[in-house]
Specification:
The complex is a heterodimer of chains A (230) and B (379).
Chain A: H1 2-33, H2 35-41, H3 47-73, H4 80-93, H5 96-106, H6 111-116, H7 121-134, H8 142-168, H9 176-182, H10 188-199, H11 203-225
Chain B: E1 5-12, E2 18-19, H1 23-27, H2 32-45, E3 49-50, H3 64-78, E4 88-93, H4 103-111, E5 117-122, H5 127-140, E6 147-153, H6 161-164, H7 174-184, E7 190-197, E8 205-216, E9 225-226, H8 247-253, E10 260-261, H9 263-282, E11 293-296, H10 301-313, E12 323-324, H11 327-330, H12 337-348, E13 356-363, E14 368-378
Parallel strand pairs in B: 4-5, 4-6, 11-12, 11-13
Antiparallel strand pairs in B: 1-7, 1-8, 2-3, 6-7, 8-14, 9-10, 13-14
The chains are: A mainly alpha (230), B alpha/beta (379).
């Protein structure tokens, strides 16, 4: 009996991973079609594009640590391990925007300009959705959101950072925000597996995680599509 | 609708096997950099030998259509049919011998059998699956009774120094050079063919075709493998070779007449392919645990490792011991490769009635992925 339960649980975790992997590849396909990414992929990026990218990402990166912290405060005692995971995650994220600002300045921007910029329409939607989700009791769907955000850091940012550096002839300290993320690709998949095993009890839970991931992917792509549209 | 079966397969590999140390002697040498990259690429693709329809003097020994026809005859010879029974011929290739007319006309001409219906599929590796799917559908709905499907390539003609020299200055950038050299040291020549019928063999094994799925991701991915446009112009199709005011010679001087592969983009496309594989699992079309054999076409061993890594991460891997390939001994023959693989698999045995064979043919050209599920039947 116990074995059946654990087998069922294993199947649900696998289904979640599969759903997340599909959400990810779909998201990557969407990114390919975003004008600024297409420009980068075609080797046609300009320094103005890179500055716009940093400026537009900054407001949402500042929020990053905040929504994870809020999510942590909505996790009950029964799931305290996930609460610690969220808290740790919030700590590693919450200084990221300083590096991003430093890169912006190193590329000819000013602190005033990047700090005073408004969120673009996509960032508004993404942030609002994250805080909305984080405000619900036991917001485990956000594990899906974190899978996407971590994927962005470990796979896309490092790929983009290297391409930006090469195309624009920049130094490491001008692209450190993107390059640094690639160094944090530790065994977060294993960690995610443990957390999914704790929280995914039925098909609805699987859907919640996968659906949250898909929405985050779409809204993140929207944020890049809406560059400078505030 | 009728069930459709692959009842025979044939392969034709021209000349003798060519080891890694003799490739340059046949293709010709471009420069030292080419030789250095060649050694690197051969370590990545791990191909040990291949075949070229070209001799040491660079003279062609056959044509693309000629190799397709020889493979087709070999397939018919091992079937329970005569060539005259064939009423449908579908061909796949990357580049036929002529710009005009279609490849199927040339293959039919070389076969020399009576009037029949033809369909030419021009793409890259997956043109083989497009051809197989058209034959499958024609047989299924009663439009044909005996179909021949071919996949064939004469890639070597692209790789002679004369194709690079007019625009060698365009290959100065390392990425562009790699884009040209990867294919030069990976692709080779050959033909493969299948005989398909709406009934199994009377004696011996048949493979029932359960379904064929093909998806293009060209809506999101840029062109990845190309010829007919310079590598740096590849996102502006209006600059293609045939628009060159100076004609074909001008196009060659601009670097438009080279076969190229964008290696960076390929890595992103592979993730898109794996996404389509997962979607088939999600829809229940593929149950990884129920698959007994995997015949997956890939251009290099390093790409196989990449695919396996992604499948494993998504919890959708099929045991590696179930994978069959002959890439390392018969080379990457593009649209012929899958049929050449199936021919060897069919002939060597090692499968039992009821077993499921998953065939996968990706195409880097502009991100196509195709799947075919077969079930073994024994008369």
């Amino acid at each position: 009996m116990l074995q059946d339960i654990s087998k069922r649980r294993q199947e649900l975790v696998e289904a979640t991973f599969r759903g997340l992997a599909m959400a990810w590849t779909d998201f990557e396909g969407q990114l390919e079609q975003v004008p600024v990414i297409r420009k980068l992929n075609r080797g046609q990026l300009q320094i103005e594009d890179y500055r716009a990218l940093l400026k537009n990402l900054r407001q949402q990166v500042v929020d990053g640590g905040c929504w994870i912290a809020r999510a942590a405060s909505h996790v009950d005692a029964e799931h305290f391990e996930i609460r610690s995971h969220f808290m740790k995650h919030a700590v590693t994220e919450h200084r990221d925007f300083q590096m991003l600002e430093a890169n912006f300045i190193a590329c000819g921007g000013t602190l005033e300009e990047i700090r005073s910029a408004s969120k673009n329409m996509g960032s508004e939607a993404l942030s609002a959705f994250m805080f909305h989700k984080a405000s619900q009791p036991n917001p485990f769907g956000l594990l899906g959101a974190m899978f996407m955000i971590e994927g962005l850091g470990s796979r896309k940012a490092v790929e983009w950072g290297a391409a930006i550096k090469e195309q624009l002839g920049l130094e490491d300290h001008q692209v450190s925000f993107m390059l640094y993320h690639g160094e944090h690709d530790d065994d977060h998949l294993e960690e995610l597996e443990t957390h999914l095993a704790m929280t995914v009890h039925d098909e609805d839970d699987v859907q919640e995680v996968v659906r949250t991931a898909r929405i985050v992917g779409r809204l993140y792509a929207l944020q890049l599509e809406e560059l400078n549209h505030v | 609708m009728r069930d459709v079966y692959i009842n025979a397969a044939g392969a034709h590999l021209p000349g003798e096997a060519v080891g890694n140390d003799r490739m340059a002697a046949i293709l010709g040498e471009i420069d030292d950099q080419s030789q250095r990259l060649g050694r690197l690429i051969l370590r990545q693709n791990r191909i040990e030998q291949r075949y070229y329809a070209m001799n040491y003097r660079g003279e062609a020994l056959d044509t693309n259509a000629g190799m397709a026809a020889k493979a087709a005859r070999a397939a018919v010879d091992t079937s329970e049919l005569d060539l005259s029974d064939i009423d449908y011929l579908a061909t796949g290739t990357t580049q036929g011998d002529l710009l005009v007319p279609g490849h199927a006309s040339a293959v039919h001409g070389a076969l020399g059998t009576g009037p029949l219906e033809i369909a030419s599929f021009q793409s890259v590796c997956a043109s083989s699956m497009m051809a197989a799917k058209s034959a499958w559908m024609a047989l299924k709905c009663g439009e044909a009774e005996a179909a021949l499907v071919t996949g064939s390539e004469m890639s070597s003609r692209w790789f002679r120094p004369g194709f690079y020299r007019p625009a060698l200055d365009r290959l100065g950038n390392r990425d562009t050079r790699m884009a040209a050299e990867f294919l030069r040291w990976t692709l080779s020549d050959g033909g493969g063919a299948l005989v398909m019928q709406p009934r199994p063999r009377r004696r011996g094994p048949s493979f029932r075709v359960d379904w064929i799925k093909l998806v293009s991701l060209a809506d999101r991915f840029d062109v990845c493998m190309h010829a007919g446009i310079a590598h740096e112009d590849r996102h502006e199709p209006v600059r293609c070779w045939s628009h060159n005011e100076a004609g074909p010679q001008g196009a060659a001087a601009d670097g438009a007449i080279m076969l190229m592969q964008d290696m960076m983009l390929l890595k992103r496309i592979i993730r898109g392919w794996v996404g389509e594989y997962l979607a088939l699992i999600d829809r229940g079309a593929i149950v990884p645990g129920d698959v007994d054999h995997v015949l997956c076409h890939y251009s290099a061993h390093s790409l196989r490792e990449e695919i396996i890594k992604l499948m494993t991460a998504a919890g959708a891997m099929i045991d590696e011991e179930k994978w069959f390939t002959n890439l390392y001994t018969k080379g990457n023959t593009g649209s012929a490769a899958f049929f050449i693989m199936l021919e060897e698999f069919m002939a060597r045995g090692g499968y039992r009635p009821g077993e499921k064979i998953l065939c996968v043919v990706p195409e880097s050209g502009r991100a196509v992925i195709s799947f075919m599920m077969l079930t073994v039947e024994e008369a």
